[in-house]
Queue: 2 jobs
Job 1
Amino acid sequence: MTDNPFPLSRDNLLKAYRTMKTIREFEDRLHVDFAEGEIPGFVHLYAGEEASAAGIMMHLNDNDRIASTHRGHGHCIAKGVDVKAMMSEIYGKSTGACRGKGGSMHIADLSKGMMGANGILGAGAPLACGAALAAKKLGHGGIGISFVGDGASNQGMFLESLNLAAVWDLPVVFVVENNGYAESTSVDWAVACDSYVDRATGFGLPGVTVDGTDFFAVYETAGEVIKRAREGGGPSLLECKMIRFHGHFEGDAQTYRAEGEVDDHRANRDCIKNFRGRVTEAGVIAGGELDAIDREIASLIDASVEEAIAAPLPGAADLTTDVYVSY
Amino acid sequence: MAEAKARVGIIANPVSARDIRRVIANASNLQITDRANIVLRLLAGLRVFGIERVLMMPENGGIRGHVLRGLRQANNQGDGRFPAVDTLDMAVTSTVDDTCRAARLMCEAGVAVIVVLGGDGTHRAVASACGGVPIAGVSTGTNNAFPEHREPTITGLAAGIIAAGLVPDDVAFQRNKWLELSLGTRREIALVDIAVVAERYVGARAIWRVEKFRELFVAFAQPDAIGMSAIAGLIDAVGRGELEGRHLVFGPVACAAHVIRAPIAPGLVKTVGVASCGRLVPDEPHAIGVEAGSIALDGEREVTFGKEDRPSVTLRVDAVRTVDVAATMKFAARRGLFRTHQLHTSVEEFATKGGK
């Protein structure tokens, strides 16, 4: 093997691949199983967008808190939430991450700094500001990260959070995952200021746009904005321009997309395929090693689904547990 | 009556100046509406000398929308100070590829001048694809060593004078050098500088980690420039018109021949060690001495290489023409072109009337 030209160690390159591939397999499996009618509620899949979650989360530790979106599975996996507990949660089973009472859009694991996926658009931003304020007051060096989509970035909560972060100088990063569509509405039509960098500037924080399908571009850029926040340099906004391979939700007919649009993305802008090509061509990791990881992940996802199906639903007695908090 | 053919193209790509230098330094972020206002000021300047139609690059970033709104509002008020704007028929990718494609199409459409909003990177993209059409640069980028800082109304006036055929080429245009990179079968150009850095990935593209700097080639280098060329400019400046460039090899500060503080990006002044700084003569390929790394063209990493790629850099003179706004305006003033509304006098007509 030759020397490593990348900014990550070989172990971390393998970790990044494993994270992205786990997300892809998890989502592609849900895509199939949801169509069978086995899964309650809605699922919104993250396939195609993995480089964003992996490139950002590689810089975080359990002290750092993230607030996710309705499309949160990828963020959960990259932040270290247990895959089996996630699958059970999506199946609504008592072995799930939230005992089966949250479902796809409310997976949380505070021990991993994952404050939750969120069915309310833009609602993660003030939570991330709160986590950042707590980190600043406690002085433990943690940061908050808020993920929103291009659609939710128009929500008042998100815009108020940009202002709050700027005036309180919070250690927070606002990640706008711009996949081009708010459900079925094109970003070109629905975002008046046209550029998220412009929008951040309007609130007094720097913004940067990055190709969210390029793991290394996300990794390096995220490293700088996260370091800036961690060292007291203040908040910033990171726009990841990306692509979702599936519809807004499962069952979406996607009539708003151009013919062949997704095929072109899958062929040329697949972040995992491109990552794999680069690390193997550089001679840092052999294709066989990655194939072995692929097999492990396939087994993990199979086992997750089998265990989720076999697990019991929450009982009637669970109805009020974990719902109310005693102070 | 047939519509007048567009004689001027305008390229304003909204994806320029959005990279990491806004976070690691304090690089400017010219907002979309500001960029649209710049286009409107250019258009107002262009119309003065009879330019009726202008070709613009399509984009989805909002510039054209704001420009068209401005034109509509002016028309509603009966204000005829803007030319009509046509949009090139091309798919939009929202990447730098749009800039290259638009430059190529404008060349094919036979425009006399392409006005470019951007910094060194955007100008590089246009120069690589415009087929020799002269460029009038408006500085709106991150590093702006190549385009000059100037009020766009004046750039529009000068471009209009040129497109109307009112000024001879030897007055209107400056000849510029560029650097050619050869890397295996790949050929690239840079208008200002080619930097070789140790990082062997493209990643966030910008370069700012001075400990990774290995070599630098510059076509020109001024002491008051921003960006990598400033390093050469502060050691041994070389002008745009001189028939040579510079080649620098970086080295550890502890044992370097030159240790200087240089503004390598907006707001980012770093101490760098330079082991040697020599002349780069035209048309002689200069092999890159580093075995592996990545290459930044006009400030952004574009390509990685290993020793099997055998990259080399060649300085070319007379490679690309730019509009000399100051000389054009001076010529126009001396000829009295601004003194009358009867402005459709060609250079030849003017000469026959005894003007000089």
Note: Chain A has a mean pLDDT of 94.
Job 2
Amino acid sequence: MLIELLTKKYPGMRLWLAQRLSAVAMAVYLIAFALILVAAQPAGYQDWLELMSPWWWRVFTLLFFTSLVMHAWLGVRDVFKDYIFNIKLRAVLQVLVDVLLIIYLCWAGVILWSI
Amino acid sequence: MPDMQQRKRPKNLNLFTIRLPVNAIISILHRMSGMVLFLALPVLIFALSMSVRSESSYLELAAILQHWLVKLFLIALSGAFFHHFYAGFRHLAMDIHWMTSLQKARLSSRLVLCLDVLSVIAFTYAIW
């Protein structure tokens, strides 16, 4: 039953699940980040850089941003569908949001890998 | 004379006389806070880039964050974040059919509001 809900027959279910999974991923990352900040007490630029620079932490951070973009895409999409009734205007705004989110993700990747 | 009768119907278009139930308040705030966080995203990514680019840009960012207006912005943003975070957990709980009766849903809504306020107070205390 659950597996059938995730097949192509019900595309909305996959998006629904993606929204939840990305939320859980972000929550795990943010709680871990808060605990690390409390434990490490970074003071100043060098500490901060040391905290952010391990390759595995950058991978997790990029996964966080990927989840964020996925989550924001689904969320903004729902809001637009509920409040913007002009289909053309909605389509234009949605493309704008899509482009922005892709730019944000690339931007975050560039920042993380230039540390 | 149905037309006359229709015209005499009492109208209640004053939105301030309609009180939203607490669950509806939590729900609409979840949407609004989500949009606020989306709109604030470029500012936050820019701050991240400043914090790691160089020591001078790090110090510049630290100086900007000391400004009271920036702190007010951060406190407002923290309110949006904490609400979206806690109300999101409430959604996830309901997705797994936990706390779904009306009474429990009201209780969890009030809990979310309390956590919001406490978290924003703690955040304000921490940065000021």
Note: The mean pLDDT of chain A is 94.
